[in-house]
């Protein structure tokens, strides 16, 4: 066994030949991983590479089929998250588990065991907030907080239990660039104090900013343990994907033609207590171009998607014009008949029904061609599913599997392929590569660009700025339901976008100063 | 110690087919044990419950008679349940269908109205059940009222309406003050399939409902729409299906079929209006629908099985002095066993020792 001789004591935690088998699938295959005290260790890999399985084993959520976990050199078995916490592990999940109606302090107290009184929590909270620069108001209700602030609650919740090892799962996916930088400072500080951090991500730049060691997983195995600062992003990406990652071709001549989508002064009231209202949205997408909409999650992206797709109707019919037809009051099927196509953010449950086969899932947006006088043309549906699988390189475990059996990246390729194959004049995509591996993301971005070059209008809503810089010709930023002016991509800097995301630019512009 | 269920990656079709059989055997073993605790021989009970009804031509007919309303109602309910809409007021829709249809039977009583009476009665029965089913649907789509509550409460309204009619306006004046109507004319009676047999044409309606539903659910856009609404409501909206229209449609269908069951039962089996016209078919049909896994053929089989427990339960009461409640208990055990068997086919069960290694 390879003991790490460079450090004085044993590693804080050591995973030895960890394997996890689900039926025929080997999710983790003999994984070795060790984390030193005070180290920020990155765990890199595509979706489906086995990162979450490994972390769940470490946190006691699932049991390994084989292998051993050592804590400070002693073999331990972690049977549940409670045992993991007693041992000194803390975990910040990608999706927060907070009660919206309760205050920050209440949310923290609820998660801790009985001996913590609310007053106690409040004291420790302000202490920790000061020490680590995690500004939090103990008495604010959670629903009034931004995603970054919510994440701070989760982090503070872990820190209150004095963890020796903090696990963070894709922590920056919901943050602005400025908020992310803030988080990195906190993590550096924690690490300097001797708390180890396991940092799970697929964003190479931040891994290089934070970590000195990174373990890269591919298909359930460790392919390399490297120093991310000593390798280029391209080399690391190649290790993760298993082959060289190419750039997106955008060089084809680009001449935008007529307007396909125009949004004029679109207003929409919020849905429910914590929904986001849309305020005075103006937007133009022309044939042959990709327009990007950037913004931090929860600023009205899904509301905008619902309004543009027709899942929610606008009050004025002329608020939205598709292919020259006022269509604000049209339902989604009517808009599809105007040759518009839509891909929502959620793959499972919104774009596709998890327990339905892929062929059945084609019906969702192809009912007009796959149904004759009320009867489903089963063979046509199966043929279409096969064509999509082939043209968009969808890897499936069987010929016509249920949607939930596909990995995130493959299902996303299928869902996007299902719309592109209709050759729509207008395609609206919300978060096209969210949680998708690098290989699939590249294919998806390329097909969006290709569709635009073939003369369609494409609108991409995304939180991933790098993605927008790669594919978009024009861009605007959404913040609290308001859309910034739309400008050619070359006129945007990352800093300017960050300011728009925080709403600072609008306040400076005086348009919404209060 | 704790018990963990982990989903199996692949489910063998053989196991899935054998699951109900295993469930059946298990529930017989459990019921046999209960009967043994009550001091009776489980073997005698099995004979009385299962073997005798199945070997006697009279009870075989009775089996089909009892299975008819169960199958009709459960088929209707399967439309609702597929779409994850919980209509548990089929009993009320059944009663309302019976009331609507019987109105015509009593209106034409003693006249020489011709063969048009019966078809019209059946249509009225369907309309009555459908309209009554649309009340909770309307309340849900218009005001967001939970359909479970409204559909259940409307059962009592329907039952009391029937009670009032049987004791009041529709009572037979020459009936010695018994709370029942006149006996329906032949023109208002669903005829038996075989002359002098007990099985009436209601059973044929049930078979037709099974066949039509198998096609609708498996082959049409409407059936797909129900499945999608039930399995992934957001995806259904994304596909452009209006959820309000779906709610209205499935409640109308299940109410209509329950109404049809009600009027065929009254005019084919009972022959007159009484304060009570159902031993709880509308509720038992919920069990039947899930026993049949919401599959039309499965529902038909389940209806026959549950009808058997009704008949067996009656003879066990007479011959073994076993309480009739045991029948309901057995139906419950059977349902639980089938659901458990399904869960075990698609999941692996594992005992995990707590706190090992400490």
TrEMBL record, chain A:
One of its GO terms (molecular function) is ATP binding. Pfam families: ABC_tran (PF00005). Keywords: ATP-binding, Nucleotide-binding. It comes from the Bacteria. Residues 13-244, 261-505 form the ABC transporter domain. Belongs to the ABC transporter superfamily. PANTHER family: CARBOHYDRATE TRANSPORT ATP-BINDING PROTEIN MG119-RELATED (PTHR43790), GUANOSINE IMPORT ATP-BINDING PROTEIN NUPO (PTHR43790:SF4). This is Nucleoside ABC transporter ATP-binding protein. It comes from Microvirga guangxiensis.
Automatic annotation (TrEMBL), chain B:
It is found in: Cell membrane. InterPro entries: ABC_transp_permease. Keywords: Cell membrane, Membrane, Sugar transport, Transmembrane, Transmembrane helix, Transport. The chain crosses the membrane at residues 21-43, 63-81, 88-106, 118-139, 148-166, 201-224, 245-264, 276-292, 299-320, 326-345. GO terms for molecular function: transmembrane transporter activity. It is a multi-pass membrane protein. GO terms for cellular component: plasma membrane. The keyword Metal-binding does not apply. The keyword Transport applies. This is Simple sugar transport system permease protein. It comes from Microvirga guangxiensis.
